[in-house]
Structures are given as C-alpha cells and as structure tokens.
Automatic annotation (TrEMBL):
It is an enzyme of class 4 (lyase). One of its GO terms (cellular component) is cytosol. Keywords: Iron, Iron-sulfur, Lyase, Metal-binding. Residues 426-893 form the Aconitase/3-isopropylmalate dehydratase large subunit alpha/beta/alpha domain. Residues 176-405 form the Aconitase B swivel domain. One of its GO terms (molecular function) is 2-methylisocitrate dehydratase activity. Residues 6-162 form the Aconitase B HEAT-like domain. It comes from the Bacteria. PANTHER family: ACONITATE HYDRATASE B. Its EC number is 4.2.1.3, 4.2.1.99. It comes from Sulfitobacter undariae. One of its GO terms (biological process) is propionate catabolic process, 2-methylcitrate cycle. InterPro entries: Acnase/IPM_dHydase_lsu_aba_1/3, Acoase/IPM_deHydtase_lsu_aba, Aconitase/3IPM_dehydase_swvl, Aconitase/IPM_isomerase, Aconitase_4Fe-4S_dom, Aconitase_B_HEAT-like_dom, Aconitase_B_HEAT-like_dom_sf, Aconitase_B_swivel. This is Aconitate hydratase 2/2-methylisocitrate dehydratase.
C-alpha cells in the first residue's frame, strides 16, 4: 500500500497548511483503497472507505474508472461492502457524471438481471453526459427490441433528466459584501501569480481577495445562515480583464453550494453583482456554474434641472446613489417578478439576469447540463421516430424584416444550429453556434482538462477545424511548478486531439508562442467563430470570444457554444495619420474619442465592428486585441479582399512552419487548415464569396468615427493610481497624451512584448537603437528594457533580416531554451533583456517589475498588482503606450517630450494605417 502511505504523508503536509486531503484522480491509488476496504480487519479500512466514497474525482479520471468498476461489482453481488449497499452504489454512480459511470449503468441496464436493469435504468434516466458511442449503444439495443432501452429513450425524449429537477427558489435571500470599489478584475478573485494552484481548488481558494475578506464572508454567513453572500463591485463592473473560471470557482467555494456531497471543493451557484453589471466574458463563466450575475445600477449620473449630466472638476460625470448595497445589507432576489428587493421595497429590475435561458442554467446547476441535455433529447426523439417537443426554452430568434445584417449577425446566421429553417437572426437572438477554432492556454489548461474529464469527454469534436494548447503564460520561468504542471497538461491535450506547444514525446522544440498570435494564424476563415481560454482571444479574422476553461472544454468536446448575438458598434476612420504616429496611438485614441463622443462606454458588452480594411491581420490584431480592455464582448475586423488574401497567405506559411517543425497530428489538422485557407482564397479571388462585409442597411447600437487628423501626440493609457475617486483607478478609460507628463515622469522599467505587438514592433526597437547609436555613438539605458517577441517565427524572421543582431548587441541578457530560467527575476539592471517568446510581464504570474515601480509597457494590463505590485510607500503603476514611446522612455528613464519623441522616430518605419476610402501607397507598412 505504498501509494496509500504516500497519500497519508501528503495529507499530513497539507494539514500543516490548513488544507484537506487532496481529491484523488489516480486509479492505482483507488485500487489500493479498494484492497483496504476488502480487508475488514485493516486499521486503515475506515479511512480508505471514506476516501473512496467522498474524495474520489468523477468523470473520466483513472480514479473514476476503478471506482465505477468496483461499484458495478457491488451491484452485481460479486463484491460485498457493508457500508455500500447496491442502492448506495447506484447513488454514487449517479454522482459520477459520465464516462465509466455511464458505461457501468448501460451495462447494468442492458444486462440479463431485470431487477438490476430496472434500477440501473432509473439512475440512467437522470444522467445527461452521454456521448455518441453511449447513444449508439442505446439505439442499437432499442432496435433489437430491448424494453429497458426503449424506456430510457422515452424518458430522454421527454427530457426528464431536466424536467424532474426542482424548480428554482422563488425568493433567494442575499447578504451583500462589497469586494472592492470600482471595476473588479478577476485577478482579485484569482491572482495570476497563483495560477499554478488553480486545479487544486481548496488551495487556490485561499488566494481570493484577502484572508481578511474571506473571514468577513464567513462571519456574514454565520450571522445570516438563511442568506447567500452576494459579492459586489461597487461603482464598477465585476469580473473585468478575463473570464477566469478559477475566479468563479473561488467565489462559489466561499459563497456557493456544494455540487455533490461526494465531490469535495466543487461548488456552484455563486451570486455576483456590480453597479455596472458583470463583464460579458465573466458572466458566461457564472452561467457555467448555474450562478446569477446582477446589474445593480445603484449609482447613476446626476442631472441638472435641464436634464444634463453634472460634471466634476475633471470633466467626469458626478454619480449619485439610488440605493445602498453596503456590506451587510439583507436583500431578496425574486425570480418570479425578476426584481431585487430590500424588504418590500423594489430596488431594481433584474430581468436580464433571469432570462429563460439563464433560469434553465440555474435549475440545471450549470450550462453544461442544458447543452448536453438538448443534444440528448434530440437524439432520443429521432431514434424513437417522434416529433421533438423540446423541454428547454427555445432558441431566442429575433428577426427584423427588411433590416440588413451586421458582420457578427452574418457569422452567427452561418454557424447557427437548431434554429427555425430560413430564419434570419438579428442581435438579441440566443442560439447554439458551431465553433471552428478553439484555444486553450496553459494557466487555465489544467482546469480545462479537469472539466473535460468531469464531462466525460475523451476526444475533440470532429466538427472543430483546429485547436491549440499553448505554453505562453508559463514561458518566462521553467520552475518546479511549471515542470510539474505543463508536461501533464500537454500530454492530456495532445491525446485529446489538440495541436500542442510542447510535444509529450519530445520530437519537436517546445514552443512558447503567445496563444492569441497562434490562433490568429490558424484562423483561416473570416466567417469563423473562435473560442479561447483567455480574454484576449480577439482575432482579426472571424469573431473570437474569450471564455472560461469550462466553455473552452465544452467547445472542444461538442464543437458548439451557446450565446446571444450581441449588438454591434461600428468603428470607421477619417483623416490621415501623422507620419510620426504609431498605430497603437490610433487604438488608444479610438477609446478616448468614443468616450468623448458618447460620455458612456458604448463598447461595453457589444461587438466592435472595426473597418481596418488596409491592415494585414497581424497589425489589425493590435486593435482587436485591445477591445478586451474596451470591455467589448468581441470584435470583428472588416478587411478588403486583397488584404485578406495576403493575410491568409501569411497564415498558410506559418501553419506550414508548424508542420515542418513536426507539430502535425494524426488527424492532419494543420494540413486541413491550409486546405481551408486555399479554398477561402479561391472564393475571394473568384468573387464567389468576397471578404466579409456588413449590409449597407445593417443596424448598429452606435457608430464611432475616429478622426485621425486630431491624433497629434502619442497616447498613454494611465491607471491613474492616485485618483481621489477609487472607482476611477485602474480602468483603461484614462487616455492621456505624452505631453501631459511634461517629460519628467520617472519610468523605472520599459516592456515591449505581449500579444499587442507584432514583428513590426520588434523591428521598430531595432531601428530606434540604430538611430540612437548613430546620433549618440552608443545607446545607454537609464531604465531596464524587457523585450519579448510574441512568437519564435518572428525571431527567426528578425534573424534572417538582420534585426536580431542589433537587439543582441545591446542585450545584457538573452534567453536560452536549453537553459531556461528556473527562478523569477526580482531585480533589474539598466540593460536590454531579450526574453523568451511568451506573455512575460504582461501575465504577471511568474515575473513582475520591482514593487512600486512605474512601468511603461506595450501590453494590455494595468490592473493593480498585475505587472507591478505596490509597496507601503508607493503604488506600482503600469502605463501602456506604443513601442517607440516605451523604448525611448527606457533610454531616458522618463517619459519623453513630444519634441524628443519626434526626433527619435524620424525616418523609422512605424505601423501606418489609412482608412480604406483614403488608401495610399505603402499604407500597410513594410514590416511584412
């Protein structure tokens, strides 16, 4: 019983850390538990029995395989355990979700012992994680005249696994807890630097907010045992920045309900709220767990006597409170009236939180059950030859006669499943859609693999065109945590059918390329739908949605996702870029001009349809990537035909490089993508299906026209860490010109990297170093400059074109894949650091700037503690700017003046853009 004694030793170690025994996923350990259970006189028997019943993970884990087999033996009578009767064994099987438990239930249901078969069938009727092989087995038995199979199928055709569930409570009492003021990043709920522990739910739960906050939540629960804690973002949006399933898991762990008494630390049904609601990508994650997300609207803009918004001295709207949600308030959610009450007083309508679809998720204890349930009911009705009478809320189909389609509406109409024949769907429709490309990243991938095991999935859906597992979020440091987690993840995903950044067999060099860049390359259709486990899954081809690890798992397993068609905001451009400006400045200016035009963020929760027809996919990605920070649901880049063809040719060449490196799989996924790209190029060139464009009579929520003529200085997104209004700190809405800082704001570190940069940015760094060398004889850095190319392809191309040589000349550190860093850097010298391709400082989970630093970066993250943490004396700042501004600031050790900036970039080939209607020669830049 060596595995068991090792497990006991681990339990002792965890107990010293105030942790419970880790849930068991190892079949060999479960086999040892069974041996101890059979030995009725063994001193360890009681403990082994307890672990077997209450601490063994379900789904398709090897532990579940062994557990299900033993339970089947108990039911058949070949094994006897006093504490586990056949009836209890059936109950345990019913909580194992799928895979081996379904296999056991099917064998018992279709077996010769009619009494057992009937009992097994009753349990099987409650299950919904059935896959094609399971359904085919049932169908074959039915066709052979098996009465039990017919009985089960008839139950499935009525969706009794759903209809017989209890209805949701009419009234849900909640006790309020303000987690923070202002926008709450999911980093507060699940810090990036604790990513290594996400799959250990109890351990990871200890990092939510602070230990003090956790204690306060527990005190509220003790004082109000009949109420559920509602976590609130006061004067802000809950869950900005990323979907982060681990954040929802943590909230559920502290405030939700246990999903099953036999599965520890898997909780569901959290309730979260925000003055400005829930970030769209985070709200999807809440739905996965059957939770509720509420838009409180408890602060509104103050109006004067003429109905105009009252502004403060900074030009920001003055807010006034309509009702209080201070910590400790007892409120009531009424699911029938769909209102939030304090006593008898109605506070706000929350019908958007309780749509028929969301109520189904709550009733079914999560969205997975509904997705699988619909498929199972449809299969049963078809097998029995019955008309399908769906037990679920119908797909919400909204159609406006005579109204054209936006780009996202066109994509959803093409990919919709299960809608009325001939239906033309507009925004607001809620439908199932086919998913073409799926991405899993490495700090959420272990959770995705857990979700796949939990839903009993063993192989990727054949309808998915391509899927990729990255290694970019753990690229900076190959420490013991990464060494323990990443190979296991890559092995699982490789077997599941994904293209993996690291080869479990070691045949090809480990790639740490930024996942969004890889997904952007393997997306070879502008009509595609992409789902990725990161908020920056924002492609410049097709429409991409950042998602939680559970939604990613669902897309991998089923090839589908369910979501509403969002409204769109159209963004177009006029005027001409100044020669000394970089396209990143256009991106920042878009946000600034939008806020000035509308006062409110019209992008939030909507699709940004951006007309960047003259930019290649890599450069356009700088815009679409930033739309996550604009709080948009997603974005779509409208491209011209010849530009799209060129982007697809670049994508083909990069996919071919992946093939040449040995990354192809048995299903020939990568070659299939090249074939699809060729087919799409042929359609565009022939004119049979031009590049995606909206209809002229499409309807938009708003239209933003960005004036390039008035962008005359580099723009910086500032976290405004000392704003007196806490709610206005760490948003991406404070966009300032470089002159605002007067050329004297100290910069402690510069960072060029992350998914926001492309090959052109790396060339800009090299060109600036050459310019500065020519002007001054040599280049000296007054602040460290960290440079991380997004992909190895870019580095290879820079080496071939001579730019890497310049970067090497000035580097004091260059990454070495044969000897990767084993520990995170804590101190920086005033030199150039050439880091491994990957997320690096932007991710903040492995390396950060020194505490209290002011960082100027090309990345997207300015949240508190993400890139740089605070000291007791000074708040860390992460300001975001273009590559040339960052490089110059590192050389100067401060923000540059506009004159210094113009001199430094003279003659440098910056990323240019001209609106399609004003296209000029050379608009695309020479970087490609």
């Amino acid at each position: 019983m060596s595995l068991y004694t090792d497990y006991l030793d681990e339990i002792g170690t965890r107990k010293a850390q105030d942790l419970s025994p880790k849930p068991i996923d190892d079949g060999a350990l479960v086999a040892e538990l069974i041996s101890l259970i059979k030995d009725t006189g063994n001193a360890h028997r009681e403990g082994a029995l307890n672990f077997f019943i209450y601490n063994t993970l379900p789904g398709t884990t090897s532990a579940a395989v062994v557990k299900a087999a033993f339970l089947k033996e108990i039911i058949l009578g070949s094994q006897t355990v006093a504490e586990i009767t056949p009836t209890f064994a059936f109950e345990l099987l019913s909580h194992m979700k799928g895979g081996p438990s379904i296999d056991a239930l099917l064998e018992l249901s279709l077996g010769n012992d009619q009494a057992i078969a009937q009992q097994a069938a009753e349990v099987l009727k409650t299950q919904f994680f059935l896959y094609d092989a399971d359904m085919e087995r049932l169908a074959a038995a039915y066709k052979d005249g098996n009465a039990i199979a017919k009985d089960v199928l008839e139950s499935y055709a009525k969706a009794e696994f759903f209809t017989k569930l209890p209805e949701i409570e009419e009234e849900i009492k909640v006790i309020t807890y303000i987690a923070a003021e202002g926008d709450i990043s999911t980093d507060l709920l699940s810090p990036g630097n604790q990513a290594h522990s996400r799959s250990d739910r109890e351990l990871h739960g200890k990092c939510m907010i602070t230990p003090a906050a956790q204690a306060e939540i527990q005190e509220l629960q003790k004082a109000h045992p009949d109420a559920r804690v509602m976590l609130i973002a006061e004067k802000g949006t809950m869950g900005v920045g990323s979907s982060r399933m681990s954040g929802v898991n943590n909230v559920a762990l502290w405030t939700g309900k246990q999903a099953s008494p036999y599965v520890p630390f898997v909780n569901i049904a959290p309730i979260v709220a925000g003055t400005n609601g829930i970030s769209p990508i985070f709200l999807t994650t809440v739905g996965v767990t059957g939770g509720i997300g509420i838009d409180l609207k408890n602060w509104v803009k103050k109006l004067d006597a003429d109905g105009k918004t009252v502004m403060d001295a900074n030009g920001d709207p003055v807010l006034e409170q309509t009702y209080s949600v201070e910590t400790g308030k007892v409120l009531t959610i009424n699911t029938k009236t769909k209102k939030l009450y304090e006593g008898d007083k109605e506070l706000v309508d929350i019908s958007s939180s309780l749509t028929p679809q969301k109520v189904e998720f709550i009733k079914a204890r999560g969205s997975y059950a509904v997705v699988f349930g619909k498929k199972l009911q449809t299969f049963a009705a078809e097998t029995l030859g019955q008309e399908l009478k769906s037990a679920f809320a119908p797909s919400k189909e909204i159609s406006h006669e005579g109204q054209g389609l936006t780009a996202v509406e066109k994509i959803f109409n093409k990919n919709a499943r299960g809608v009325s024949p001939g239906a033309v769907l507009h925004a607001g429709s809620d439908v199932r859609v086919m998913v073409n490309i799926v991405g899993s990243q490495d700090t959420t991938g272990l959770m995705t693999s857990q979700e796949l095991e939990a839903m009993a999935a063993t192989v990727i859906s054949p309808t998915v065109d391509g899927a990729y597992q990255s290694g970019c979020h753990t690229a900076s440091v190959w420490d013991l945590k990464a060494q323990a987690n990443i190979p296991k993840l890559m092995s699982f995903m490789n077997k599941f059918g994904l293209i993996t950044a690291r080869d479990p067999k070691g045949a090809y060099h480990a790639m740490t390329d930024v996942i969004h860049k890889v997904l952007n390359d393997i997306t070879v259709d502008d009509w595609a739908i992409i789902i990725g486990g990161d908020s920056h899954t924002r492609m410049s081809k097709g429409v991409a949605f950042g998602a939680d690890s559970g939604t990613v798992a669902l897309a991998l397993a089923t090839g589908e996702a369910t979501m509403p068609i969002p409204e769109s905001v159209k963004v177009t451009f006029k005027g001409q870029m100044k020669s000394y400006m970089d396209f990143r400045d256009v991106v920042h200016a878009t946000q600034a001009q939008m806020l000035k035009q509308f006062g409110d963020n019209v992008f939030q929760g909507r699709i940004i349809e951006v007309h960047l027809g003259t930019l290649l996919a890599d450069q356009a990605f700088t815009f679409t990537d930033w739309t996550a920070e604009m709080k948009a649901k997603a974005s779509i880049c409208i491209s011209e035909d010849d530009t799209l063809v060129e982007s697809l040719e670049i994508a083909k060449s990069r996919i071919q490089i992946m093939i040449d490196k040995g990354m192809e799989n048995d299903a020939q996924t990568l070659q299939g993508l090249i074939d699809k790209a060729d087919a799409r190029i042929a359609e565009i060139k022939s004119g049979s299906k031009p590049a995606l464009t909206p209809d002229d009579n499409a309807k938009y929520f708003a239209e933003v026209v960005v004036d390039l003529d008035i962008i005359d200085e580099p723009m910086i997104a500032d976290p405004d860490v000392n704003n007196a209004d806490v709610s206005k700190r760490y948003t991406h809405d404070t966009i300032r010109t470089v002159s605002y800082y007067g050329g004297d704001k100290k910069v402690d570190l510069g960072f060029v990297g992350s998914c926001m940069v492309h090959k052109g940015d790396m060339k800009i760094v090299a060109q600036m170093l050459k310019n500065l060398e020519k002007a001054n004889g040599k280049v000296e850095f007054k602040a460290p400059l960290v440079v991380a190319a997004p992909t190895y392809n870019i580095i290879d191309e820079l080496k071939a074109e001579g730019d890497w040589e310049i970067l090497q000349k000035y580097s004091g550190f260059e990454f070495d894949d044969f000897m990767p860093k084993a520990t995170a850097r804590t101190e920086y010298e005033n030199i150039l650091y050439l880091e491994r391709p990957g997320c690096n400082l932007c991710m903040g989970n492995q390396e950060k700037a020194a505490k209290g630093d002011t960082v100027l970066a090309t990345s997207t993250r300015l949240f508190q503690g993400r890139v740089v943490e605070d000291t007791t004396e000074k708040k860390g700042e992460s300001l975001l700017a273009s590559t040339p501004v960052v490089v110059l600031a590192a050389v100067l050790g401060r923000t540059p003046t506009i004159e210094e900036y113009k001199t430094a970039v003279e003659g440098i080939d910056l990323t240019k853009f001209s609106p399609p209607v004003e296209k000029v020669a050379g608009a695309r830049s020479a970087h490609f």
